[in-house]
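Supplementary Methods, section 5.1.

A reviewer requested that the exact input to the structure prediction be made available. We therefore reproduce it here, unchanged from the version used in the analyses.
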Amino acid sequence: MSETHGGFPDFDESDEYLLALRKELNTPLDTDYFLLDADLPQDAKDARAKMRQYVNAEVLPKINGYWERAEFPYEMLPGLAATGLVGGVIKDHGAAGLSRLAAGLATAELARGDGSVNTFLGVQANLSMGTINMLGSEDQKERWLPGMVKLEKIGAFALTEPRRGSDSAQLETSARREGENWVINGAKRWIGNGSMAHLVIIWARDVADGEVKGFVMEREDPTDPSTMPAGFNARTIDGKIGKRAILQADMVFENLAIPESNRLPGANSFRDTSRVLASTRGGATWESLGHALACFEAAVAYTRVRDQFGQPIGNTQLVQNTLADMLAELSAIQLICYRMAELQESGAWTGTMASIAKMHTANKARTIANQARDLMGGNGLLLDFHVARHLTDMEVVHTYEGTEFIQSLLIGRKITGHSAF
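The structure derived from this sequence is encoded token-by-token as follows.
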């Protein structure tokens, strides 16, 4: 992972200190201390390089403004589609068809640029496209996936509810068959891409048999309120301290009619929902790696050029001790990520492994972000230095895909054989 880190914001050319910092941030930094690149297949290297080129050219120079204004960067979508990486491990219908390792490295690179854009793509490719690819009919796949690969159609995955988060299996949104339509009633919360989605995958409980089923609600133009389907309302959640550049929504369904042709035939119980979630396990782990990399590299660059008491702060013992600790934890995250990809490819990956990986990497990446912020002092609070954005985004990563506490209970159940929830 030694390619050039670009995209640091422009500064007044007369400010020699900031120019020196930008130079350091554009100097390749080797973080591959366990020589993982030596065994990296070419397809994985290519995927990483493509995403890094995109991030450096289009994300890093612009994202801080969008993040501060809490606006989604629509202008970045054509470049993201042009990478050819949309769709991750999904094959056919124009999707990337990547290996688990290649998809993971691309995720880490995108998160290294920005967490909001990474979450957008995760919801689009892994959850939304993944659901249609896994549980949809062939006609539905052909109908929706090609446009989603091109990012012409944006998807959302509506599972979490105001009263149901970690216990999503107990969801309360209902679906009732009436002739050729299904009538949906209920509410969803924290739905990524929800305010801007053309396709919203709604998980609801069939009142006839009590089973959870999947339905796709279509919107012609999410930016035009007049095209809002009757019985559907979405409101962007504001006031967030992290992931500010992705539009997450509260949704309400009041007798929303969805045609039978938009019911996913492979989604007939929550076990099918769980299959989709299981296929996406690991996304937060790779994202944690990306945030940790960004914070470590920024901290190293800063401590090389920041002078205090007549010398760079990187010359001091306490700073070097902190950087060494950060690198050790970063290396552990890398090793978990690479091993995870191997086990996923072989089919040996388990839920307990996923819980260990998510809990550990999110905790350690969160710590690395805090250490970077501390090393940068007051400057660590400024968006110009990027770390503040990664720090608050890691607060979000620490929560989704299962909090530390939920993951620990899943692991504890495996260890002891007894459930504590």
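The longest helix spans residues 317-346. These observations are discussed further in the main text.
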